[in-house]
Design brief:
single chain; about 290 residues; alpha+beta; BirA Bifunctional Protein, domain 2; SH3 type barrels; 2 domains; seven-stranded mixed β-sheet; five-stranded antiparallel β-sheet; binds biotinyl-5-AMP
Amino acid sequence: MPDPSAADLRAPAVLAALADLGLGRVDVLDEVGSTNEHLTAAVARQGRAPGPDRPWGDLSLVLAGHQSAGRGRLDRVWTTEPGTALTFSVLLRPADPRGRPLPTRHFPWLTLLMASAVVDALDGLAGTGARIKWPNDVLVDGRKVAGLLAGLVLDEQRPPAVVLGTGINVAQEHPPVATATSVRRATGRAVERASVLRAVLGAFVPLYRQLCADPSAVGPDGPLRARITGRMETLGRAVRAELPGGAAPVTGTATGLGEHGGLLVREASGAAREVTAGDVVHLRPAPDPRGTD
Ligand code: BT5
């Protein structure tokens, strides 16, 4: 029976490793409804009435041993058994080294950068062959091992910030839905979630700082863009993008990422569409562009 508390995540060696990354405030909770909701509410409370508490600065973190009411996008839920998943939210107040805020149009890249950090962490620890599914999933063997959820934090006094939540299935024997997997189930490897935490944040923080310092890194030939696209399962695939609000789905071949991280889809008619939000279904493999199949 896994330990349902967050004792493993607040071990001194783990906290010391996080401190080395130069994070902001770090709160480790045994159990919470949703780390995203908890962090968003705490930031808003402090914005309204600054008190003696440590401020929620850039790269502040809320970690939970267990989430009892994890959130997905829209009205969906993120379900985990106690002690088996890594669930955390990080507050991002992206700004360049001179303190100029990153324009919000770049914010979609933050989720994709975190997804690429999850891919690298899981590959490094367990050789998972993980891949990014646009816009917010990480897959192993075509099944979802991690999901990300970003929310905007608006406060009249400060530039917009982002609460970026990440849930990673580490040790579940029986993932909650048929489309899910865990590191353990996919690889048979018993990886500690504290190791996953260190590896994910160790990968994410330098990428985040690089984006803040130079947004052209996600531009047409930018290294961060290449890093993300090189880890994407979605590109080159036949996809159906289901759009929010009931608009007609977009079906075609995913060809790349747009200027602000949207998914470019070439429809059968040849028309190019950019999808900025929605759920993507990976259909059969894309036809070979050389026409050999
Ligand atoms: C997501 O939404 O994938 C976002 C998940 C974000 C979770 C993190 S945990 C820390 C932070 N705090 C929160 O409250 N949330 C964030 P979406 O793309 O809407 O996918 C949701 C769907 O994934 C559900 O409808 C299920 O089908 C499926 N699902 C639920 N739990 C899952 C799990 N543990 N593993 C894989 N799939 C799951």
